[in-house]
Specification:
Elements: H1 43-53, H2 63-78, H3 90-95, E1 115-116, E2 119-120, H4 135-138, E3 140-142, E4 146-149, E5 160-166, E6 170-178, E7 200-206, E8 213-219, E9 225-231, E10 259-265, E11 268-276, E12 291-301, E13 307-310, E14 326-331, E15 340-354, E16 361-363, E17 367-379, E18 382-388, H5 417-420, E19 443-453, E20 456-465, E21 483-495, E22 498-509, E23 512-524, E24 529-541, E25 549-561, E26 565-574, E27 590-599, E28 607-620, E29 626-639, E30 643-656, E31 659-672, E32 678-691, E33 696-712, E34 715-728, E35 734-749, E36 754-763, E37 768-778, E38 784-795, E39 800-801, E40 810-811, E41 818-830, E42 833-834
Parallel strand pairs: 1-14, 2-5
Antiparallel strand pairs: 3-5, 4-13, 5-6, 6-11, 7-8, 7-12, 8-9, 10-11, 12-13, 12-14, 15-16, 15-17, 15-41, 15-42, 17-18, 18-19, 19-20, 20-21, 21-22, 22-23, 23-24, 24-25, 25-26, 26-27, 27-28, 28-29, 29-30, 30-31, 31-32, 32-33, 33-34, 34-35, 35-36, 36-37, 37-38, 38-41, 39-40
Length: about 850
């Protein structure tokens, strides 16, 4: 129980600038419920089972048996009577007399969670980062924080003040982050969503109080803002070193409209935040009922072993972030106005490129264009998005990947805002990516509907793609034709962090189609055990008709992530004919069984934690022939001051071209992030690898070095230098290939609104040099002005074209210097109108 201390009679509000007169302000203790001790909900029956099956990595058993056994183990857990939130409420009520109904158990939260009621205000603050507004004198006040990491449950090492108020349109936060030694503070002036190596104040909302998804809003000492959407869908058996990463990684592609401000002060920083209720989705309570949201506040301190301080205490014995939230309650009469956002865009682009028929660079005429995006809040929890003629000129280029000697295709992430915003509903963790919107190459329009109705989360997306019709021959049936893509997803919430769902995708072009239908489920079985299953079928028909080809994919994973122990069992199969043109399939004709086991020790000294991990996997084809067998072991160390080291080895058999190749490899790496001014890391691996062009075993050496330099609080450079080299030991270590990529990304923030980004990259695979410069003036998440310059060069004697028009590629230049191959200059203006 919290101790009750006498309140000081008067004190100056932290962070308030003197106003020239002696003002006194009463400091109030936070309105919190005591934190109770005792078992988490539903732990008793399942934790006992977990102890018996924790030794269960399945090793060398047949694939059919492994899949059936893994699914059976999971389903035996999935429907146990105690579903985590169904224990008797009497414990919570008895231990915390006077707690108003509904009880925390009814709301799905663990017993003893703290509660806070914001103060309603008629005088909103000016969001400038200075806590001198009248509202902060009477706002709800929180001062009690504990560590979530590195030592969960330990007292916070720095003092923090948080103030909360609201009106019908906004919820307001004031923060004062104190430091005994301000030199450890990390704060940089940068772009939105680019400050996640800084010290931050973050607020989290689970507005539906269903423990399925939530929002986070962040601010640093300069008022730089970030936001994201979190999902409870867990990556079973994955994560950082056996530790339950209780704070989920948010999807940063989501951009909400909200206001922030920050000020560096003598003992740290102060910040303010105003979040419009229009930027959130939430249920409308019954008339007269207050809103009740899951709520958490986190303060992150990178300079102090990346300490996370939390308002609602968190434990590594409970992996659910949402169940460990506190409760934000008592807000009434929130605005029910429907959100309407109209975002017109104007672009003008001037291209230039090499004439493919002669050694000359040709500039094209400038190409102006316009488009519009519309977002409409059908209800407070259901939103429709429309885009017509979208433009993505400002999008950062793909991160470099070495593409030489790859047996399977590489995956490149989606970066375009219309497709990544709200994509969480379409994401289903599986060995196949069901929805990969980069397959929609050049859309002329798109429509998206997403939100929640009762316990159902829904998402629908349709788009018209012009790319397949961009052929040169007017007699081609595909000439100027478009492909239609349709995606639909529904998910039903069962109980805390558990759901079942269905997905349908379809892509049609001329008389061809690619269709997919799937079912999936995610189950949280105890505070540390979770599982899932996926059942998917596909049907494909090529252009020109013919017989459709059908395929399937099955997958299931079950595992435990506890304070010290982590294990997982994973089995899946993908048939030979499984295909989807809406998603991404890396490999087919495979039956896989994988098991892993990891143990983590926590000395709580200069070694924060360390431990070993072992993984064993087998892949068979559908004829029952063993294709791959892999055993690997690793050890990971996390030290004080954000230093980490790791090492691993593997012994593998890979079958390729009818030959079994035995391979061994070793790798090591580490990262150092001890200073605001710099951080760096390195990875090195050495061992055997197959040369797929002429199947044989080669000797491979890979290495990469990365560094981030911040000499000024508004300037940052990220450098990455990587190499991959393969030699033939049977031929005197003759070089088979040697590829190096050097990439530098530089950001300069001149003011809070004006910034510059430059990306420079050298790639020896094709001897290319690329440069991309972007200036942006950003008023908010929607209103932005861009000016960009994109330039690409290649070694001249490697540039090919069709000189004679015979369809054969041949050399265009006979010099070895760099030649410009492509160039573009563009401007883009978008202005957000919100009603």
């Amino acid at each position: 129980m919290h101790e009750h201390h006498p309140q000081p009679s008067v004190d100056r509000l932290p962070g308030v600038r003197p106003s020239g007169r002696d003002e006194v302000i009463e400091r109030r203790k936070p309105r919190l419920s005591p934190v109770l001790s005792g078992p988490a909900l539903g732990t008793e029956p399942l934790s006992a089972i977990g102890r018996h099956i924790a030794i269960g990595p399945v090793l060398a058993i047949g694939p059919h048996i492994a899949i059936a056994l893994t699914l059976a183990i999971g389903l035996s857990f999935a429907f146990t009577p105690a579903q985590l939130s169904g224990q008797a409420e009497s414990e919570a009520s008895a231990a915390s007399p006077g707690v108003p109904d509904p009880s925390l158990a009814e709301l799905g939260l663990l017993p003893g969670r703290p509660r806070i009621t914001p103060t309603r205000t008629e005088a909103p603050p000016v969001i400038d980062g200075i806590l001198d507004d009248e509202v902060w004198r009477t706002a709800a006040h929180i001062t009690e924080f504990t560590q979530q990491s590195p030592l969960d449950g330990a007292p916070a090492t720095e003092a923090t003040d948080v103030y909360i108020a609201y009106d019908s349109e906004y919820i307001y936060f004031g923060f004062h982050a104190h430091y005994e030694d301000p030199s450890v503070m990390r704060a940089n002036l940068g772009e939105r969503d680019r400050m996640y190596s800084d010290d931050l104040m973050t607020v989290y909302f689970d507005t539906f109080l269903d423990q399925q998804r939530g929002y986070d809003f962040d601010v640093n000492g300069y008022g730089v803002q970030g936001d994201g959407i979190m999902s409870a869908a867990r990556r079973i058996g994955r994560g950082r070193g056996g530790v339950a990463d209780a704070i989920p990684v948010a999807d940063r592609s989501w951009d909400a409209l909200f206001d922030t401000g920050g000020q560096i002060v003598d003992d740290g920083y102060t910040a303010e935040m105003a979040i419009p209720f229009k930027s959130l989705r939430y249920p409308t309570p019954a008339v007269g009922e207050p809103h009740r949201w899951g709520f958490q506040i986190v303060r992150e301190l990178w300079g102090k072993d990346r300490e996370n301080q939390v308002w609602a205490p968190m434990s590594r014995d409970e992996t659910s972030f949402f169940a460990q939230m506190g409760l934000l309650e008592g807000m009434t009469d929130l605005s029910t106005a429907r959100n309407l956002e109209i975002l017109p865009t104007f672009t003008a682009i001037q291209y230039g490129d090499i004439d493919p028929t002669r050694p000359a660079f040709v500039n094209q005429d400038a190409d102006p264009d316009a488009g519009v995006n519309v977002k409409y809040g059908i209800t407070t929890n259901l939103t429709a998005d429309f885009t017509v003629n979208p433009d993505f000129s400002q999008i950062e280029s793909d991160r470099p990947q070495i593409e030489v000697n790859q047996r399977f295709p590489l995956f490149f992430s989606e970066l375009r805002p219309f497709f990544v915003e709200g994509a969480e509903i379409f994401n289903v963790l599986a060995p196949v990516t069901f929805v990969h919107t980069r397959t929609i190459v050049d859309p002329d329009y798109g429509v998206k509907l997403s939100g929640q109705v009762g316990r159902f989360s829904i998402g629908v997306l349709t788009a018209n793609d012009r790319a397949p019709g961009k052929v040169d021959d007017p007699t081609d049936a595909a000439f100027e034709q478009t492909a239609q893509t349709f995606i639909a997803r529904a998910r039903y919430d069962l109980y805390a962090e558990s759901n079942i769902g269905a997905i349908v995708t379809d892509r049609e072009f001329l008389d061809s189609y690619s269709r997919l239908v799937g079912l999936d489920g995610n189950f949280r079985l105890s505070p540390t055990i979770a599982g899932d299953f996926r059942v998917v079928g596909s049907s494909y028909r090529d252009v020109g008709g013919g017989t459709p080809v059908d395929g399937h994919m099955l997958a299931t994973r079950w595992g435990q992530t506890a304070r010290n122990l982590r294990w997982s069992l994973y089995a899946y199969q993908i048939s030979r004919d499984f295909d989807t043109e809406v998603g991404f399939v890396r490999r087919r004709d495979i039956r896989n069984v994988t098991s892993s086991l990891e143990y983590r020790l926590r000395p709580e000294s200069w070694i924060m934690d360390w431990g070993p991990q072992i993984t064993y996997s087998r892949n068979y084809d559908f004829d029952g022939v063993l294709q791959d067998e892999d055993f690997s072991g690793s050890i990971n160390f996390s030290f004080a001051r954000s230093i980490s080291l790791n090492g691993s080895f593997s012994r593998e058999m890979e079958r390729f071209g009818g030959i079994d190749f035995n391979k061994s490899s070793f790798s090591a790496g580490g990262n150092v992030n001890t200073s605001r001014s710099y951080s760096f890391g390195a990875n090195f691996s050495i061992g055997d690898e197959i040369y797929y062009l002429a199947p044989s075993i080669g000797h491979q050496v890979n290495w990469s070095v990365n560094a981030t330099l911040r000499p000024l609080d508004r300037f940052q450079t990220r450098l990455r230098w990587g190499s991959r080299r393969l030699t033939d030991p049977a031929n005197g270590d003759a070089e088979l290939f040697d590829v190096t990529i050097l990439r530098a990304t530089t950001n300069m923030q001149f003011t809070e609104r004006l910034g510059m980004r430059n990306i420079t990259e050298w790639n020896t695979q094709d001897e290319t040099f690329d440069m991309n410069v972007l200036f942006n003036y950003r008023i908010n998440a929607g209103t932005v002005f861009f000016i960009g310059y994109d330039d690409h060069y290649q070694q001249a004697d490697l540039i090919e074209g069709d000189r004679d028009g015979d369809g054969l590629r041949e050399q265009l230049f006979y010099t070895s210097g760099l030649r410009r191959t492509n160039r573009a200059i563009f401007i883009k203006l978008q202005y957000l109108l919100r009603y």
